[in-house]
Amino acid sequence: MAFWWKKTPKTASDYARLLSEQLNKFESVSTVDNRRKIQDDCSRYLAGTKHFLLGEVEPEPTAEAVDELYSAIYQLDLLYDLLANLAELEFEARKDVALLFATCLRHSRDNKLVTVDYLVTRPKIVSLMLRTPQMALSKANSSDLFLKAGSIILESLKYEQLCRMMLRDPQIWHFFDFAKGGSFEVSTESLQILTSLLTIHQKPVATEFFSQPANMQKFIEKINNVMAHGSYVTKRQSVKLLQYLIMIRAYNQLLTAYINSPENLKLIMILLSDRSKNLQLGSFNIFKVFVANPRKSKPVMDIMVKNRDKLLHYLQSFNTESKDVTFLDEKEYVIQEIESLPRLVSPNSDFPSGTSPQH
Amino acid sequence: MIASTTLLPQDSFTGRCEMSKDVKPDEPSKLYEIKECVGKGSFGDVYRATDKESGEVVAIKIINLEETQDDIEILAQEIYFLSELKAPFVTTYFKTFVEDVSMWIVMEYCGGGSCADLLKHLPEHRFPEQKVAYIVREVLYGLEYLHSQKKIHRDIKAANILVTDNGEIKLGDFGVSGQIMATLKRTTFVGTPYWMAPEIIARGDNGYDEKADIWSLGITVMELLTGQPPYAKHDPMKVLMNIPVRKPPKLHGRFTSPARDFIALCLAKDPESRPTASELLNHKFLSKLTWRGAGNLKKEVDLVKALKERINYSKVPRHSVTEKVYATGLRRHLQTWNFDNTDGIISQLPNSHQFQRQKPPKMNSADLEQSSPRSEKSPISVMGSAEVNTPMTNATSPGMRVPHHEKDFDVSMGLHDGKAAKKKTQQIAGKGLNYFRHIILYSFDRIFERARSENTKHVVSRLRDLFEEAEKSQPGLSEAFVEEVYIRMEEIKNYLVETSL
Fold first, then answer.
1. Are residues B63 and B206 in the same domain?
2. Where is the Protein kinase domain (chain B) (predicted)?
3. Which end of chain B is more exposed for a tag (fewer CB within 10 A), N or C?
């Protein structure tokens, strides 16, 4: 591996020190040429640090030397500086930053995740981590930068303690907004971040996040918003997320709250009739829970009663080509339940009584 | 209980759902002019296109997201993967758009097609050694770049080695095979077994790493020199089974010893003893080339272009670009609902008088009698009664697949993460689906229905009982059975597709 050092690192911790020095120069740099030079140096030291941590240098570094480098990374708050200057770095160097984060996060000593423990004591790094994607959006090449910043969050979300810290940070709500607008990359990754955040570590999500009414309400508001107004892709991903979340036993509160509101039912019914088969099926999986609820709220019941014939008519021809036994069972069940709803005889009913199945 | 949302005044969904005005996506069909189809796949076609503003020629793969079996998350992972590649030996990714229900992936255009394309059309159906050396060297540069980032291509073969109009080589994911992306999906896994490294097939405890690409490269060298991968005439499934147990294939015929040696090195069965891409770049098979560009494929590209023109060769896309799910003039929704008087007011007024007032008008018991199977209950009691036990059937729904964990980590960084992620996916995928009940039993029931004579029906039901017995004594048998049938069917399908091209 050929990289040539300006200043040859004498000890393992020099890797981190030299990199940290260069990163801190970005702030005061004035000319384009100087910036370029700092970029080059950063790329070089970053690659060196990465290779050292991964044991890809000759001779292979000792465990003590690697530990020494990790300690230096922590002491210098290098992870913070890397995030703060991510946009300044070159294309390949940014990838190295993401890889460096992943490597550090995985680092363990005596069964302890050293970097994770360190980050717990440095909330400002975790906070910056969540804010880096937003900063990326204002830069040139925003999609690319956003992806890198996002991948660092995704990597961190694998660790419960970091996930819990992020769950407490109001910045997470912004990812719904990013999911709604933005390029394909930005919107899909934003939803993946939300998905990871809410599905990997279910216990803290249930006991610390959805247990708070304000969070619950805001979540429903936000996810409804993307399901209603997002792009086709965002709609599909968000319907899928909601469909998955309400099935998680530990999130029973979410399920109950969701299926009790008539506004949510309206949205789901609208999606149920969307031209996209995938959206239809996704929302059917939510709709069926509204139907199966033995204690429907009055307003929810009213909507169903009012649309009884329309629903029956629509469901008769709904996804008829499916051969999925479970789906067919569920559809039949839903139809049965709706049939058992009281019938309205109203002069302005859209369907003559003949269209609904008679018993 | 939390009354959930406060946004959404009446009709806010219906009004604005019509192609969200707050999102203004770029419409690729306005930015690019689609020319001819240059490649096709089962769920997406590749087109040559030009940027209307700059005139730049690009390749656009259009994937219909309504039809593809792939999860959006997996396609997105592949896009992220592509967006991390910027090197002269790899096709460059530009941008992804979504229009209607299709994804448009804009990539660098390689006008010469793939090496498999050239092999197919060149009169001799093979390349001379020095051309192969040229191709291989360029591919190795690409692999060196990929591998240095802990990425594995996993689908190295002539069809994925693309050629520019100038005859230069680019490692790409898409060619005529239609497998744009190198994912480790079952179908891809089955699609190209001839090139697969033994450790991928055997799936030992050790998994596999970038050395798998080196094996595939060795097979590809044989393909380029002879026109076919080894055992190409044999049944692909058999070949697949045989790769891990047999000795590595050898090059037969009149070839130089450096070429033979190069292949033998790549085809070491133990991945550890295979050389790296960087090491192979110093091999004497490649050292005959003195400078970059010396042996490029310009001549071959031009020849094949001329040949194709003569026979009026063209590809017919499988999917229409213009057909739209949300076409203008069509309503976005298939059904309108009646939400009048069902909004907020009711929930705010729990008092019984107003409750009464909001009650659906003109509801008489005769109607209820007729329509409700639970006629003994009044509508109110149905609502309020806790005794009405409506079973929640959703728990078993196969639709409940974990969205996040489906990601195929193997595609991107972290060679070590892959194995764990794979295991997880398998566990999850298995949870919802009961292979015996949902597939075997279901199929038997269908066959039973189709059977005309009593005798046939009898045999079918006996067979079903036997199967049930077998599943009981050997749990998981159905899964293995279904999997094998599926693999075989896919295989045959792929074969038919290949030969019909």
1. no
2. 32-286
3. N
Domain extent listing, chain A: 1-121
Q: Is A233 on the interface with B (CB under 8 A)?
A: yes
Query: Helix, strand, or coil here: B51?
Result: strand
Whether residues B76 and A192 touch (CB distance < 8 A) is answered with yes
Amino acid at B276: T
DSSP-derived secondary structure letter, B441:
I
According to DSSP, the β-strands at B113-114 and A112-113 are unpaired
State residue B461's pLDDT score.
87
User: What is the DSSP pairing of strand B93-99 with strand B102-108?
Assistant: antiparallel
Measure the CA angle with vertex B373, ends B371 and B375; round to 5°: 85
Q: Among this protein's residues, is B445 annotated catalytic?
A: no
Query: For tokens 């189709």, what's the residue?
Result: B450
Which residue, B286, B310, B334, sits at the end of a domain? B310
Q: Check residue B289 and give its pLDDT.
A: 61
Token duo for residue B336: 């309108």
> Mean pLDDT for each consecutive 10-residue tract of chain A (359 residues)?
53 87 89 91 92 84 90 96 95 93 92 96 97 92 92 96 97 96 92 97 96 96 96 96 96 95 96 94 96 94 94 93 91 95 65 44
- Partners of A236 on chain B (C-beta within 8 Å) are 65, 72
Residue B339 lies in a domain: no
Q: Which residues of B touch A192 (CB under 8 A)?
A: 73, 76, 404, 407
What is residue B482's predicted lDDT score, i.e. its pLDDT? 87
Residue span of the structural domain in which B466 resides: 424-500
CB contact under 8 A, A217 and B6: yes
Domain boundary (B74, B108, B142) is at: B108
Q: How many domains does chain B have?
A: 3
Closest chain B residue to A210 measured between Cα atoms?
B2
Chain A: residue nearest B368 by CA?
A: A342
Write out residues 142-171 of A within 8 Å (CB-CB) of B. Answer: 143-144, 147, 151
Which residue among A244, A295, A324 sits closest to B403, beta carbon to beta carbon? A244
Residues of chain B with pLDDT under 50: 1-24, 174-191, 291, 293, 343-430, 501
pLDDT for the residue A57: 81
For the record, the structure tokens of A86 come out as: 């991510």
Q: Is the Cα dihedral A69, A72, A74, A77 positive or negative?
A: negative
Instruction: Write down the pLDDT at residue A126.
Output: 97
Predicted pLDDT of residue A135: 93
- Whether B97 and A144 lie within 8 Å, measured CB to CB: no
DSSP calls for A187-204: HHHHHHHHHHHHHSSHHH
Top-level class of domain A1-121: mainly alpha
Residue B161 shares a structural domain with residue B54: no
Q: Do the Cβ atoms of B17 and A229 come closer than 8 Å? A: yes
Same domain, B283 and B204: yes
In angstroms, rounded to a whole number, what is the distance separating the alpha carbons of residues B365 and B362? 10
Chain A residues touching B361 at Cβ < 8 A: 344, 346
Pairing of strands B102-108, B113-114: unpaired
Residue B366's pLDDT is what?
A: 39
pLDDT (tens digit per residue) in B340-372: 765 443 333 333 333 333 333 333 333 333 333
Amino acid at A28: S
Known binder of ligand: residue B288?
A: no
Q: Which tokens is A112 given? A: 């302890």
Whether the complex's predicted ipTM surpasses the cut of 0.90: no
SS (H, E, C) B337-402: CCCCCCCCHHHHCCCHHHHHHHCCCCCCHHHHHHHCCCCCCCHHHHHHCCCCCCCCCHHHCCCCCC
What CATH number did the domain enclosing B65 receive?
Answer: 3.30.200.20
Distance of alpha carbon A197 from alpha carbon A200, whole angstroms: 6
Q: Please identify which of the residues B117, B155, B209, B213 carries the catalytic annotation.
A: B155
A351 close to B (CB below 8 A): no
> Which residues between 288 and 327 in chain A have a beta carbon less than 8 angstroms from any beta carbon of chain B?
288-289, 292-299, 301-303, 305-307, 310, 314, 323-327
pLDDT of amino acid B324: 82
